[in-house]
Specification:
Hypothetical Protein, Haloacid Dehalogenase-like Hydrolase, Chain: A, domain 2; 3 domains; six-stranded mixed beta sheet; alpha/beta; single chain
Length: 317
């Protein structure tokens, strides 16, 4: 009897999830139709919002070691758009200091000064919780929250999980070391309670022995009230303040530029791009993205290994 009851409960939960999925898909389709109907025939993006990992950068192996690579085609396409007057905005779950080197790889900005609007790049970091200008690195907006209750609930469910909090401009404070290459900057080991005793902009939860599906199920199971969270490609969970996402960060930037969401082309490949896709005038998923991201986009380009971002940008510039 108990097994039968549990099975019925799981089936009911799946039905509720499916209904919510269908409602979200219907909303996305209505939004797309409205955007396309209102888009002029000569529309061209004034802002290009670019995810980094899996969009601008791909992983490559050389002599047994892995490294992040940006192709010449992607760099050239982004620079063509910049030279034509488009605003290039990097939007990622990475911390600010993990994004500036990507701006350096692109060679942007250039031929400008700190007092010139195009002389400093806009960067939406930490999934929208931190907005910076670069160079030099200058935080212009930050959202903080109390992560304590959520982190304690997660640790009760996943006691072996790794926890990290950004230490802006330096690196991370964490309860134990993450797998090599997953975090950058200086690492300072402290206990979990020390990590969450003060308000933070973002918390990373990682469990190398779990899967992304395990983390998705955990989020449903324990509730995680009062925060925003997104699961990555692996058992990696980003916690941010409620209502904060790449979309909210980009909205701040676009307001500063005196433009509208309809002026934005957004390209990405992860679950943390879903809000950005729903917000932007045109959203494009990389070909290797998971099904829910592919479905959420207005269009799908080639995978990162085939320079999909360059293919999309080259349609407009």
């Amino acid at each position: 009897m108990a097994s039968s009851k549990a099975g019925k409960e799981r089936a009911s939960e799946r039905a509720v999830d499916r209904q919510e999925h269908d409602r979200r898909r219907a909303r996305r389709l209505r939004r797309r139709a409205a955007v396309r109907a209102g888009r002029p025939a000569d529309w061209r993006p004034k802002v290009i919002a670019l995810d980094i990992d899996g969009t601008l950068l791909r992983w490559a192996e050389d002599s047994g070691a892995t490294s992040e690579v940006m192709s010449a085609a992607v760099k050239e396409a982004v620079n063509r758009a910049y030279d034509a007057g488009a605003h290039i905005v990097l939007a990622s779950g990475r911390s600010p200091h993990g994004m500036t080197r990507v701006a350096d790889l692109l060679g942007l900005p250039r031929d400008g000064t700190a007092s010139d609007e195009r002389g400093r790049l806009w960067i939406v970091a930490s999934n929208g919780a931190v907005i910076v200008r670069y160079p030099p690195l200058d935080v212009v907006h930050e959202e903080l929250f109390d992560a304590g209750p959520a982190v304690r609930a997660i640790m009760a469910d996943q006691p072996s999980a790794l926890v990290a909090v950004e230490e802006r401009g330096v690196g991370y404070r964490l309860n134990d070391h993450f797998p090599p290459g997953e975090l950058s900057g200086e690492m300072t080991l402290v206990d979990v309670e020390e990590l969450i005793k003060e308000p933070v902009s973002r918390v990373i939860i990682r469990n190398p022995s779990a899967s992304a599906e395990d983390f998705i199920e955990m989020g449903r199971r324990i509730g995680l009230q009062g925060i925003s969270y997104v699961v990555g490609w692996t058992a990696w969970l980003d916690l941010t303040p409620i209502g904060v996402s790449k979309a909210s960060g980009l909205s701040y930037v676009v307001d500063q530029l005196g433009l509208e969401p309809s002026d934005v082309l957004a390209i990405g490949d992860g679950r943390n791009d879903l809000e950005m896709f729903a917000w932007a005038g045109r959203s494009v998923a990389m070909g290797q993205a998971v099904p829910e991201v592919l479905e959420a986009a207005d269009a799908v380009t080639l995978p990162v290994d085939e320079d999909g971002a360059a293919v999309e940008i080259s349609q407009w510039f």
